Amino acid sequence: MENEEKKFQMLAKKWKEATLFTSSMTEIIDNMSYREIIDMGKDALSFIFDDLKKNGGHWFFALRQITGDDPVRPEDHGHYEKMRSFWLDWAERNGYNVDANKKRDDCFA
Fold first, then answer.
1. How far, rounded to the nearest angstrom, does the alpha carbon of residue 44 sit from its chain's CA centroid?
2. Which of 24, 48, 53, 80 has minimal Cβ neighbours within 10 Å of its Cβ?
3. Counted domains in the chain
């Protein structure tokens, strides 16, 4: 898992640097590094949740793509803090320990 974490950290850093000064969601989610994180699939989830909790960021599209789920109520789409909270709750309910940056083995979803 260490190599996956290094890969995620490298890609997330490149993505954040490349999109730091853009407000275009299209540019943010079409970035090659972001797409590579999505391609990591479920291996990226614990790292995404950890980053979302610690630093925030526009991880919602990636989370929907990887999980096939969207825990955010329709009326809360576009409300960043509510979306963040719904996804972090989803992570806990599905066995992701966002504080420890690891998936709990006994709750594999």
1. 8
2. 24
3. 1
